Each structure stands twice: as C-alpha cells, then as structure tokens.
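Co-fold these.
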Amino acid sequence: MNRVINNPDLVVEDMLRGILVAHPELRVSADNPRVVHHVGAAQKGRVGIVTGGGSGHEPAFIGYVGQNVVDAVAVGEIFSSPTAKSFLDAFRAADGGAGVACLYGNYAGDNMNVKMAIKMAEREGIRVRTVVANDDAASAPLDEIEKRRGVAGEIVMWKVAGARAAQGGSLDEVIEAAQHAIDVTRSIGIGLSACTIPAVGKSNFTIKDGEMEVGIGHHGEPGIEVQSTVPARDMAKLMLDKLLPDLPFARGDKVSLLLSGLGATPLMEQYILYAEVADILREAGIEIQFSRVGNLYTSLEMMGVTVTLTKLDAELSACLAHPCHSIGITVGGAS
Amino acid sequence: MNRVINNPDLVVEDMLRGILVAHPELRVSADNPRVVHHVGAAQKGRVGIVTGGGSGHEPAFIGYVGQNVVDAVAVGEIFSSPTAKSFLDAFRAADGGAGVACLYGNYAGDNMNVKMAIKMAEREGIRVRTVVANDDAASAPLDEIEKRRGVAGEIVMWKVAGARAAQGGSLDEVIEAAQHAIDVTRSIGIGLSACTIPAVGKSNFTIKDGEMEVGIGHHGEPGIEVQSTVPARDMAKLMLDKLLPDLPFARGDKVSLLLSGLGATPLMEQYILYAEVADILREAGIEIQFSRVGNLYTSLEMMGVTVTLTKLDAELSACLAHPCHSIGITVGGAS
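Predicted complex below.
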C-alpha cells in the first residue's frame, strides 16, 4: 500500500513532530517525548484530565488534548499502550494540585501501565483516580460488561470531564461525571476493510470484498459476526438493534450521537449512514440533541464506521454544550 | 469495494439527507433539492457568497456553507457540475439585495453553467460577480494560468470572501478580496490510489502499488508525472519545489498552509507530511501564520494529499482570523 511516511518504525515520532508544529497550543513534555499537554494544563486548583492509548486512532487520543477537554496525553506506539512512565509523566503534566482524572479505554496493556503509573504518582503526592471506558457493546455480553473495550465513547467521557473540571468540579465530581458519561454510552463498529501497521507491512486480519465484520474492534479484534455487506440502512439497523436494547435507550430519551469513519470511509458515506441512524432513532422516539460526524476515532486506513450513543440528562447536556477547543472536537465558535 | 451506501445512483440524495438532519443550521432550497443554504443566508444588505461543484469532495463544497463563510451551495452529481438552474437557485437563496459573489473552480461544466445562471439571475435583478479559482499549479504551465483548475485553494477564497461580506464589504470589495486570495494561492496534490464513483463501480484511472501521481487532479486528472513512491520528506520537497517558485513565495513571506488528505489517508500520515512541509518552509524563511490539517477537500476514497499555500498580507490574515463556523472550517471557539 502506498503511504505518506518516512521510516515505518518512526511514524509516531514523525506524526508528533507535525502535530506539535501545527498546533503551538500543544507542548511536548520536557523529559518525555511521548507526553503531550495543552499549554493551559496544570492550572492551580483545577482537576487535570489525562488519557492515553496506542497511536493510529487519530484524532484520538492526542487530538482531544485542548482547552476544556483533555489536559495531557500519553502516546503509545501504533495500537500499543503507552508505557507506565508516560502515563506518570502525563499525570505530572496535568496536575495542578487538585488531582488527576485518568480516563482511558479498557485494554490489558493500558490497565497494567495506568496501575503502575498511579503507584508511582502516589509516591509523589499526586492523587489520581480513573475511569475505564467500556462502551463497545459488541466486545462482550452485557453480563460481562467489565470485559468490554473502550472506543469512541471515550470522546464523550473526555468532553464531559473536561467541562466539569473547567466548571471547578472536584476530582470526585469530575470522576463521577466521567463514570456516569461512559455508563450511559454504547458504541458499535462495522469493519469493511482491514488496516496495516506501517512497520508490519501487512494486515493481521482480513475482510473480504463483499463481506463486513459487525462489531469489529479498533485493532481488528473479531466482532459479533462476519456477514455479507448490506445497504447503509441495514447497517444502521444492525448497529442500533445491538445498541438500543443494551443500555437500554427508550422512547423519550435524548441522546448524543457520534458517527465516526474508521479512516478511509468518505465523509459522504458517513452522512449516508447518519441519515439512516437518524431515521431509526426518530421512529423509536429518541431525540438527537448533540451530534458529530467525521473521522473522530479511527483505525489507520480501515474502511468502516462506528456509532456511539449516549443517553443524556441535564448535566451531560450542559457538559457537552460547554465551549471547548481541540483538533478532534470544538464547541462554540462564531456567533 | 465495500461501501456505506444504499442505491449507488442516489448517493448524493442520501448524503444530503444526512447532512440536513445532522446540521439544522443548513436548509435545503424550497424548490430545488440540490441547493443548500445557511439559515442566516440572504441577510438584507449583506453580499451573498455562493459556490458549487460536483459531489465526492466532502467536506467541499457543502461543508463550507456556514456562518461567515459560504451562504449557499449548488450541489452536483459526483464529480459533475451542478446545473445552471441550481446555481441560479443558489444565487436566489444567498441574495440579500447587495449582490452575490459566485466563487467556484475552473472546470468546463461549472464555467458554462455559472454563465447561464448569471444571465437568468440578471433578468431577476440579482447582481452576480464571479471569481474562478485556478490554484492547482500542476494543471497547466504558469503562462497558461487561466487553464488551471481550482482545488483546495477555494477554501481560502471562500473564507476570505465570507469574512469581507461579514465585515460589510460591498460586492466589488468582496470580489476583489476573493480574487486577491486566489491569485496568491497555489496548490498541488499527490495521488497514491485511484477512487471509484459508486454508480460506475470501477475507477476510470489507476495508480499502481509503488507508484504515485504527482500533480494529480481531484477527479484523477493526469498530473505532472507518474513516478515511484518516495518518503514523505521527498513528497514535501517535490510539492514545494513546484509551488514556491510558481508564485513565487519568498523569504520573509507569511503564509497560510492547508494540508488535506484526499479521503483515505490517515490523519497520522497527514501530520507526518505537515512536519516535512514545515521544515522546508522554515529553511526557506517562510512563516506559517495560519494552518489547517485534515480531510479538507477530498476525492472520495482516494489515497493521497494536497498542499495549498497562500501568501498573506494584513487583510488576508485578518480575514482568515475572522470567526466562522461550518462543517469544514471553524475559527474561534473556546477562550
């Protein structure tokens, strides 16, 4: 496959160089090139928001570092957890004395490294609490929800927590808001092609022409079912048939809807799916109150889409409407 | 190829349905489903900004309809000009009595249809002036600049004109600003894969694995040269070696830099190229004062990238900094 890279072993370094020069409001940690923080991070008395994860999901995770969203991010290799040291350095970069909310996705490597980092941080007097996102409804049954992976629902968790921190919330309040946000969020993806880690040079999974993987994970993890491709309206139905009963979402609910391409899916096709999802929600009596469409959380050049629904209440709605600015999400603007 | 569509002949209709439900600030024209305007269009006494073009380039063109950018857009079939009637209806939707600036790209179909639409508009007393973007430096020699195509430089033209209109500029002032913006703008693309119109089902051109097309057009039009793929830093050099002498851009210049993926190129790779472009500009003594990275102007699921440079002066800088809000570009936000 033809790519826009230099050395395939240095794609993360080379990407970070580009992000830092393009966004002067983002800064690399003085003693860790794999930690990036916002220029306004570590405000005295304000809870710091940290996340981290493997690269290759851009704009996640680094693209959600910004004003009133994430303060600092630990950057991993492609599809690999950041090190414990990087999580620790991200805590240091984000801590303004009021503690750090580390909000990340449920993957074995991240769980292990965050735990180690917290132990080290405690020795330095940095208080860290975590929320582990598990919004991927396809990744385990409901009665094993603790096994589910975190995917694009993390964006909602970061946005809500960033807003609560900006509003002066305590660490416990920020954690409670982030936990609540992810608890009422469900995501599902459909994969239409594989993707290739540059340094590996070939994909570790395949999706045939004419087939799709319903419930695929963000690293090609197996989903619920491989089946023949169907029109967009049937994709929407498959996805919502899984998501709606899972929470459940019910008539009268107001929701946030994030519809993301997985990397190579044209925006045109994302909006085609959006129309179908919106139709089903309207028929179900569920109102879309906040939404975003685009490449919000990707898997390199995978073809495919994800849908993320969050059941809103007054506090979540207010947090989503709170102004913020980052590569991946901006709320507010001209008026 | 696996896609997220319903009927391949109705992808534009289906996309528009999604865009309109996702963005309530956008409205379809009452008597033309292929014209979309901003809810604030046709403000009395304010110059209306219109564009139009084929679909498949999302977020262009429709994604630049918004507050203080484009007021109304004529939407064509994939890679095909909108009809003259659609351009006329877009003029009607945007006209608030102060005239309409129709700012579009240099393609035969668009030229013909805009001309016909203007004749019809004049009979209704709508004053329309045009600027025809020709920023694609690879599409014809400098001494035949009038033959060059319009590409992502149109975004700069729209942004600048939208700002001048918002500032109360007259039609002549808006046109002058838009013409100046495109006159000091140069773009070039590199194609790394072909793309496929859904209703056609196969590409009308090919790019082999291990080869790239330097100077490719947004519909797969032949570029300057097909050659073996090179690292990102050499891609950057190839592109800037063409762009910098063409205007020319010189030491001490301040520029706007738009770096766009063509659809399937991961954001990671776009930032890798950004770092290389920024290096060359810095070495050349050229300062990046405004920039955007992402899928700004695409060609369905083509792999590849485009670089657009604009030489800034005080007026252009002020116009780019003017707050605006649309799917494709937002300036301002949290603070």
